[in-house]
């Protein structure tokens, strides 16, 4: 298993929300839905057999970027790998002391310019990561719907509220929150 198959694993979870974007990405990778399912099966075997960043290194090779980062009071290790499907982003794995994975998601490295986000209308699927949105717009973190999914509650200047859904840290959709009548 390598980068190609790992990207298929990420796409499999994204297919629940953005099947049309996933279908195009699978075509760009020269893969099929069957290959995506097989890659996911192999990834699950890797997850069961290895802990923390060792499983990612076994698949993606040594991380070209590694730093110590603070997560609350913990001193954690963050490792990042480039992925060909998202050349302006990196797949980041943050581990606590002892190797437990705290976070694994797509992030924007400092040398990659963030998209200009002036409002809700600028949010397009797969155009930005959680940090891009949280820095640009008033937001409140919400509980995600699965281990690889996150949500932000966004408030626009006119007082409207929206929920931004992310899979592996990448924006998938924005939904308006309708007040109860």
Plain-language structure description:
- There is one protein chain.
- With 181 residues, the protein is an alpha+beta fold.
- The chain has 3 domains: 1-49, no CATH class; 52-112, Beta-lactamase Inhibitory Protein, Chain:B, domain 1 (2-Layer Sandwich); 120-176, no CATH class.
- 30% of the residues lie in helices and 30% in strands.
- The strands form 2 sheets. It has a 4-stranded antiparallel β-sheet with strand order 1-2-3-4, covered by helices on one side. Strands 5-6-7-8 form a 4-stranded antiparallel β-sheet.
- Helix 1 packs antiparallel against helix 2 (19-28) and helix 1 (3-14) crosses helix 3 (33-49).
Biggest sheet overview = 4 strands, antiparallel
Mean pLDDT, as a whole number? 91
The CATH architecture of the largest domain would be: 2-Layer Sandwich
H/I helix tally: 5
Structural class: alpha+beta
Strand order of the largest sheet: 1-2-3-4
The helix/strand series, from N terminus to C terminus, equals: HHHHEEEEHEEEE
Produce the secondary structure layout:
Blueprint: H1 3-14, H2 19-28, H3 33-49, H4 52-60, E1 65-71, E2 74-82, E3 90-95, E4 101-107, H5 130-136, E5 139-142, E6 149-155, E7 161-167, E8 170-176
Antiparallel strand pairs: 1-2, 2-3, 3-4, 5-6, 6-7, 7-8
Helix pairs in contact: 1-2, 1-3
